[in-house]
């Protein structure tokens, strides 16, 4: 390894978490005596030494930091697929990465079976070709908060890299700097350990005049704009939850397959943004531009749009943000409290006051009234507001001009009020506006392939769809496409069945009329609905599946082409349905529990059991 201390940073990311962390690491390299090389998505490997020109010799010596998330069911993000394909090339010499040193940080979510598998796959591939790791592979969990792993992982990274470059001498100094408390002795509670160092602000915010950008509709790679052209409430007014059907039309040609999802950019709740701006004492109509060095990052735009569209003001406050908020407090008690929550010593207090209460920036500011941070601090330390995914509840062959969605409004009780989810609150307001005949702002969307979760190409493949609640959404698209294909085809179509679950027939039987029409027209051979709250005991889709197990087992065991699709809540529902199918194989297929489980694994491996599940956190 040369001693130029040059570090390249690469990322694999779909919704921007890994990219944001990679960019931060890249920006901080200089502070730690390291030189910043490139910062690129993994698919741009051709621009780095990883793409060796000479097939026979190893790549030149280089240090890399990789930050990579996980998608699908343990798959890698889409902006890494070409890189992984490249790594599989047979022509590489066995140790062609022997001069490469690396550190890998994985992002994932423990709700998924294959936690952080993207980072595991990357590390396996790097090791296989002789690359050497200089630091342990981090596994950050979205379920409990990425920053709980990301912050200590980055803190330790500098030391590990400097040691590797042979600069142990400067490592202790860096360590001390990392652990340093606020230099003002009167302010710093010295008994706390591991208070993050105060954040250095890199972004510059300037007041601007002149034309203002419309942040809401500026599209970036792959995105397009659409407008609401239909909306209706799918649940009855007596139901204690609300599910909306929303239609979005676009001037762009819509191109997607049944099963695909769309990411939708959303805006924070306007009242919360106003409340935040009032605390900051900033006029929301003030026009600002944000610069990183000389580069314009965002703007010119109104501050209320910057906070509304770009920053996640809802997720639990990070320790780094709390540390900065402590510095912005004038009351000693507020400051001590915030320092404690941001310190390693205060881990339990952080969990109790921030994570368990899902306390956002606004909650923290309301609870620590002397804290009035500058807008610059927030723009630097708040995470980016992520778009949300929604499965298409339509097929382009059936409704070519509009894509349909079904979304369930998230509601959480905070203190004595009910807060709606960021996206579902925003989308629900759009639906209501549309129904009231008001103008609705354009939406910015982007389609995302759901990989294997798509209907079979041939009509003669029988399949079973299982989708309680909003999990039924993609199956509307399956059935719409099928109804068109059946008309066009002369071949005999195989049977398809749908298992749907809801609370009561008269409150939340989503798409009852549409599904009945598909049954009447022969597109859907069999519809089974589990009404969970109409009986003394709960009845779920898996209970229906078990009760009708004989037919189902015959199909799964005897027809080698048959498939099962599961969609919706990835927690208890998916576990329950998989258990239900396993017991069907035991009860009607004469299998032992172990054999039935093996059969389920085999079905999944051969893409005959396909899941598309999501988690609400
Ligand atoms: C591929 C894919 C397809 C999807 N398809 C659909 C679909 O078709 N239909 C659909 O409805 N959803 C779908 N989802 C889920 C969807 O993307 C969103 O996650 C969901 O709509 C919630 O978004 P939100 O912004 O309204 O909620 P968020 O604001 O992100 O809230 C999410 C969670 O945080 C909790 N929470 C929020 N604020 C607080 C608080 N203050 N205190 C305590 N808890 C809190 C909520 O209870 C909830 O559990 C899909 C997800 C994926 C990944
Ligand atoms: N935090 C929020 O505000 C929020 C908002 C939307 C969705 N979610 C969560 O997301 C999930 C799906 O939401 P949704 O609106 O699409 O559907 P949903 O109405 O919550 O659920 C659809 C049907 O699935 C049933 N169900 C519950 N647990 C199940 C299990 N373990 N196995 C099989 N079926 C089960 C429900 O029954 P019962 O309800 O009668 O048990 C209901 O009949 C739920 O877990 C829900 O809690 C949360
Ligand atoms: C559709 C979908 C599938 C996912 N699948 C997995 C998975 O199989 N394993 C895992 O550990 N995390 C999974 N995740 C969680 C993401 O890896 C995690 O949210 C991460 O922070 C996303 O980072 P990114 O914004 O850089 O893409 C999934 C997330 C989504 C939205």
UniProtKB/TrEMBL annotation:
Gene Ontology CC annotation, any one: cytosol
The protein's required cofactors: FMN; FAD
Domain of life: Eukaryota
MF annotations from Gene Ontology: [methionine synthase] reductase (NADPH) activity; flavin adenine dinucleotide binding; FMN binding
Record InterPro entries: CysJ-like_FAD-binding (IPR003097), FAD-bd_FR_type (IPR017927), Flavdoxin-like (IPR001094), Flavodoxin/NO_synth (IPR008254), Flavoprot_Pyr_Nucl_cyt_Rdtase (IPR001709), Flavoprotein-like_sf (IPR029039), FNR_nucleotide-bd (IPR039261), NADPH_Cyt_P450_Rdtase_alpha (IPR023173)
GO biological-process terms attached to the record: homocysteine metabolic process; methionine biosynthetic process
EC number assigned by the record: 1.16.1.8
Residue ranges of domain FAD-binding FR-type in the record: 221-456
Keyword set, alphabetical order: Amino-acid biosynthesis, FAD, Flavoprotein, FMN, Methionine biosynthesis, NADP, Oxidoreductase, S-adenosyl-L-methionine
Location of the Flavodoxin-like domain: 7-158
PANTHER family: METHIONINE SYNTHASE REDUCTASE, NITRIC OXIDE SYNTHASE-RELATED
Protein name: Methionine synthase reductase
């Amino acid at each position: 390894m040369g001693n130029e201390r040059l570090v390249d940073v690469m990322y694999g990311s779909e919704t921007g978490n890994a990219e944001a962390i990679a960019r931060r690491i890249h920006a901080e390299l200089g502070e730690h005596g390291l030189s910043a090389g490139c910062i690129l998505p993994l698919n741009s490997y051709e621009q780095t030494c990883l793409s060796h020109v000479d097939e026979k010799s190893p790549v030149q010596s280089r240090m890399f930091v990789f930050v990579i998330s996980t998608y699908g069911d343990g798959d890698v993000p889409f902006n890494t697929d070409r890189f992984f394909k490249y790594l599989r090339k047979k022509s590489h010499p066995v140790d062609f990465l022997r001069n490469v040193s690396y550190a890998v940080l994985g992002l994932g979510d423990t709700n998924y079976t294959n936690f952080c598998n993207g980072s595991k796959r990357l590390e396996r591939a790097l090791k296989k070709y002789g690359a050497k790791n200089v630091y342990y592979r981090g596994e950050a969990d979205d379920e409990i908060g990425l920053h709980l792993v990301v912050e200590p992982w980055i803190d330790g990274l500098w030391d590990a890299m400097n040691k590797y470059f042979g600069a142990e001498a400067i490592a202790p100094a860096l360590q001390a700097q990392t652990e340093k408390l606020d230099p003002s002795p009167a302010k710093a509670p010295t008994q706390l350990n591991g208070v993050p160092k105060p954040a250095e602000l890199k972004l510059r915010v300037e007041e601007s005049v002149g034309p203002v950008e419309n942040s809401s509709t500026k599209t970036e790679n792959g995105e397009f704009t659409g407008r609401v052209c239909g909306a209706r409430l799918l649940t009855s007014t007596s139901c204690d939850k609300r599910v909306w059907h929303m239609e979005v039309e676009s001037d762009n040609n819509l191109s997607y397959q049944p099963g695909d999802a769309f990411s939708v950019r959303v805006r924070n709740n306007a009242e919360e943004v106003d409340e935040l701006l009032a605390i900051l004492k900033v006029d929301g109509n003030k026009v600002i531009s944000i610069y990183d060095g000389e580069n314009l990052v965002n703007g010119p735009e109104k501050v209320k749009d910057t906070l509304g569209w770009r920053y996640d003001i809802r997720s639990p406050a990070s320790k780094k943000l709390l540390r900065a908020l402590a510095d912005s407090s004038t009351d000693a008690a507020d400051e001590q409290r915030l320092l404690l929550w941001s310190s390693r010593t205060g881990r339990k207090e952080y969990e109790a006051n921030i994570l368990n209460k899902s306390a956002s920036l606004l909650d923290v500011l309301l609870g620590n009234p002397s804290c009035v941070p500058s807008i610059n601090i927030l723009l630097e330390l708040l995470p980016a507001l992520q778009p949300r995914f929604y499965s298409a509840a339509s097929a382009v062959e059936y409704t070519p001009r509009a894509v349909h969605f079904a979304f369930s409004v998230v509601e959480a009780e905070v203190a004595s009020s009910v807060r709606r989810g960021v996206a579902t609150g925003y989308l629900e307001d759009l639906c209501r506006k549309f129904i009231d005949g008001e103008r609705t702002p354009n939406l910015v969307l982007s389609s995302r392939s759901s990989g294997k979760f798509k209907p079979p190409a041939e009509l003669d493949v029988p399949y079973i769809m299982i989708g309680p609640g909003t999990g039924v959404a993609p199956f509307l698209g399956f059935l719409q496409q099928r109804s068109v294909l059946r008309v066009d085809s002369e071949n005999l179509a195989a049977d398809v069945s749908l298992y749907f679950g809801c609370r009561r027939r008269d409150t939340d039987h989503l798409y009852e009329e549409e599904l009945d029409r598909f049954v009447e027209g022969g597109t859907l051979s069999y519809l089974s609905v589990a009404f969970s709250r109409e009986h003394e005991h709960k009845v779920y889709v898996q209970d229906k599946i078990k009760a009708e197990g004989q037919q189902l087992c015959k199909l799964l065991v005897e027809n080698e082409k048959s498939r099962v699709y599961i969609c919706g809540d990835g927690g208890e529902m998916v576990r329950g349905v998989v258990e239900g199918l396993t017991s069907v194989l035991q009860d009607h297929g004469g299998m032992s529990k172990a054999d039935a489980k093996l059969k389920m694994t085999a079905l999944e491996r051969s893409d005959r059991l396909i899941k598309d599940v999501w988690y609400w956190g």
